[in-house]
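Continuing the series of single-chain predictions for the mutant panel. This is the parent chain; the variants come on the following pages.
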Amino acid sequence: MNFLAANLVDQFYALIWPLLRISAFLTFASIYSIRAVNLRVRITLALALTVFLVFQMRMELPRIDPLSLLGLREIFNQLFIGFTLAMIMQLATASLVVAGQVISNAMGLSIANLIDPNLGNVPLTSQFLTILGTLIFLTTGGDLIVFGILLDSFQHFPIGQNIFSQDLMGKMTAWSSIVFVGAVLVSLPVMITLLFVNIGLGFVTRAAPSLNIFSVGFPAMMFTGFIILWLAIPSMLSRVDWLWVQTFNQMRDLILQAS
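Parent structure:
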């Protein structure tokens, strides 16, 4: 009986460390933290990945007491690794939100907002681009790629290794620029076209000063904006796909170069 209890304690100590890292990733990652993926699904997925990692990959995990000082430090390390990998995906999704906000402001839809439980008060175009990015992520097999990178992190960031470094912080800071780079690339076709539409409305206003630009300009910008957005979707798909590829490469480079 004592042998069985000791064996259960050892199994618990072996499972808790990868479970913490995987749970932190699923909690903060942009695709898996949405409301549609409820808590039960995330817990089940985290347990399934942990069991696969420990029993199928035959990884040797150290036995560290989680109530000791070393164990508390290791808990923070595992949560930080999962949060760091999730934040890379979160920044990629934030670029789509910023692109939607820029397009909405140009079209005159900045007032038409939705309350998103994850992103807050965001425009309708941001919601559309976020859904589009999620569909492209799933279509390209991004879920399998991300889980593969997450499992590989246990080989490059083994349990018990200190992962804090200046290079790691520098890479995360540099990656934050993807929010603006991705937003510019995704919204560029629509923004350039709407700029020429604004210039045309300016010429019309100069030619006919008595024309009420507010009653003509806003409907024209909305109608033209929707047409341009519809025509620009094929080019947006390739740009969003490029954004996810860069996200996967950044996650791989982070665990390879920081190990």
